[in-house]
Design a protein that fits this description.
This protein is mainly α. It is built from 11 helices and no strands. Helix 2 packs parallel to helix 6 and helix 4 packs parallel to helix 8.
């Protein structure tokens, strides 16, 4: 475990002054800015809504995050992290160190998982702050007390768990494919396909990139199914990826 923690710390130190670090805040920040502008510029529209504004803000924020931004965010982050080794061909020196390969693989996997956690919580806090600021500068926008922390935090954690399978798949792909364009291309294509399949009960529930979006579907048992599929699938992909990485020949 101490070997793994030292390896993880070394990987974290590599992130200083990199685009991957700033994207942790820029990706959810873009959604927060769009949401703020939408409410601020369309006061009459939202002021006449019969649905509670906290519910609208909640659904809009997590829809944009889970359906569009999160899959692309994971794609880009895993490609950038793997690119730290691919671009300068560091694999030979890295794997020559007295560190087990499983520790290298899992330390590189933990980082994008942590990034998703931080970004999702940043989105949650920012969305709630948006509501508080909007009601203070636009009194017609009725965001009532109490602030629904529990609703936003619950869905933030559900989204994080639902994204685990996507993260593990892209982690494997980004380490396996040596070019940035190839690994990001896989993610972009998969995200485009998810737009087609997200409303399909037959195929959408099986396509990993649809899982965060399917949390928004109000059907009995769907949340449980999504979470179980994501966790079990992530475990299987991680173990298979560790096995493949441990036996891979680096040239």
């Amino acid at each position: 475990m101490s070997i793994f923690l030292r390896t993880l710390l070394a990987e974290l130190l590599k992130l200083r002054r990199t685009l991957a670090f700033w994207l942790v805040f820029l990706a959810p920040g873009l959604i927060l800015a769009l949401e703020f502008l939408m409410f601020h510029e369309r006061v009459d529209f939202f002021a006449n809504k019969h649905q509670p504004l906290w519910d609208i803000l909640h659904r809009n924020s997590f829809s944009l995050w889970g359906v569009l931004m999160l899959p692309l965010y994971v794609t880009l982050q895993t490609a950038l992290l793997a690119g730290l080794e691919h671009t300068e061909d560091r694999w030979r020196s890295l794997l020559a160190m007295p560190v087990p390969r499983w520790a290298i693989y899992w330390s590189k996997l933990v980082i994008p998982c942590l990034m998703v956690v931080i970004s999702s919580l940043f989105l949650t806090g920012g969305a709630l702050l948006n509501g508080v600021v909007l009601r203070s500068i636009q009194p017609r926008l009725l965001f009532p007390d109490p602030i629904p922390w529990d609703l936003f935090l619950r869905d933030a954690w559900l989204t994080i768990v639902a994204s685990l399978l996507i993260v593990t798949i892209h982690h494997f792909v980004s380490l396996r494919l040596r070019t940035f364009a190839a690994s990001t291309g896989v993610g972009v294509c998969a995200t485009i396909i998810s737009f087609i399949l997200v409303n399909s009960d037959k195929y959408g529930r099986l396509w990993p990139w649809c899982l965060p979006a399917r949390l928004l579907v109000t059907k009995p048992g769907i949340t449980h199914d999504v979470l179980v599929y994501s966790v079990v699938g992530a475990l299987v992909v991680s173990l298979a990826g560790t096995w493949e990485f441990s036996r891979r020949e680096i040239r």
